Amino acid sequence: VAAADIISLLWCPIPLVIGLSGIHVSGKTADYICKFFTGYSVTCLTVTVTYLSLVVLAVERFHAIVKPFHSTLTFTNNYMRYVIGLIWITAVVLSLPGFLLSEYDEKLGRCLDPWTLEKAGSLKWLYVMSLVASLSFSGCLLYCYFQILKGIFINRTVCSAEAVSSRQSNAKEKRKLALISFTVTVAYHLCYLPFLVFELYIAFQPYQAILDNYEDLYKVYRVVGFVMYVNSCLNPFFYGFQSSNYRKNFVRLFTRKTKLDNNRISSR
């Protein structure tokens, strides 16, 4: 997730700046730049990686908290390497339409990827597939976290305060990890769903209606695209600042620097 967020934030300014400035490289290299830099293809890849990672985390948390005695999905270090590799390979395959269908339009002078207003109507199948995949994965996420939260707060059958003292700290850690994962999942959906809903709306609109309201729709397209990037900015706060170890070491980083500076001054 961190790797996907870093890539998203590095690529984020490129299509936004190009879209606002209206300046794009033309010629033979324009299509390649469009596929990898000025379109949303790389963003599609990172969003898919994040989504698949959240699904894997939800399933793992579900088995670790609700079914702790089932060791079939215990993530060892060796097993995780294969899981992470599979996530990225699957994300690349699912993102191929974005790379293959993105192209530079000489008349408009800008990059047209599958999510632009001009192409949305001709790619209804892509949005329907995205909707079906999103609903399927969201159903899996909803089930896992419903069972986890139900066991923690309603039935109190998992991570309860009445746990054996030797296991109590482990239970608290499981609860914290579950709540952090749930928070990240909710934030992801809040940032991603506006873009998906808008694209579905555009895909099934008559092309003439899009042309008549092009300027307003283009502004909305840029806004929902920007909101999708916001998720990459939020994840470090959700993961980092909810961790006591992270907060302690974050403070220690600055206090240690202050002490070193004071020691240097005193030595002089």
Measured as a percent range, the helix fraction is over 70%
Q: How many β-strands, per DSSP?
A: 2
Count helical runs: 11
Main sheet: which strands, in order across? 1-2
Radius of gyration: 23 Å
Give the mean pLDDT.
Answer: 82
Helix and strand succession? HHHHHEEHHHHHH
Strand content: under 5%
Structural class per helix/strand content?
mainly alpha
Question: What is the fold's blueprint, element by element?
Answer:
Layout: H1 2-11, H2 13-21, H3 30-38, H4 41-65, H5 77-101, E1 103-105, E2 110-112, H6 117-120, H7 124-154, H8 165-203, H9 207-212, H10 214-240, H11 244-267
Antiparallel strand pairs: 1-2
Helix pairs in contact: 1-4, 1-10, 4-5, 4-7, 4-8, 7-8, 8-10
